[in-house]
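Repro case for the chain-ordering regression, as requested:
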Amino acid sequence: RKEVEQDPGPFNVPEGATVAFNCTYSNSASQSFFWYRQDCRKEPKLLMSVYSSGNEDGRFTAQLNRASQYISLLIRDSKLSDSATYLCVVMKGGRRALTFGSGTRLQVQP
Amino acid sequence: GAVVSQHPSRVICKSGTSVKIECRSLDFQATTMFWYRQFPKQSLMLMATSNEGSKATYEQGVEKDKFLINHASLTLSTLTVTSAHPEDSSFYICSAPGPLGNEQFFGPGTRLTVL
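-- result from build under test --
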């Protein structure tokens, strides 16, 4: 079983739609959680950290449920520029290496 | 924010040659850097942890004699792919933990193509 599991998609949505991505992680020792965005043939870029209390950054809302080891990302009012692969990422602490999910591809269509 | 550079951005080489990739933290010091590899349509996989002044820590299944890592200073780590073969063709990305918190800063990546 992969340490971080995501639905690979692709999610094809129209502009303005709301889309939700889910992720589960297997290692209960994981301490920090993130969503990264990766554009084709580029390095991943941090979208937001994820906390149990939930956090929001503009159109993006992330949520962590430690009990069920589940992470979510909600994107409201999708823009064409949101088209990318969204990576669920966990860090176990200690040496701070990251474990990446395989990513969920989002394609926002006009 | 903190910046990590990587050089070269793209390499095309013949099978059997060695390729060196540099990763630099430009405005902060990094005692630890991480090297990841990403094959097409797959996610990033951690290859090794580069430790300044000591040996690198390799993940299971990564050959330390093939992927040589040197972290000679607080701002530079190098990954050398020795005797590269076509199956080593991949996107290699380094990262360094930021000085302030949990954030990691990624280099722009090096795309290696071995013919």
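Ordering looks correct now. The two ends of chain B are 37 Å apart (CA to CA).
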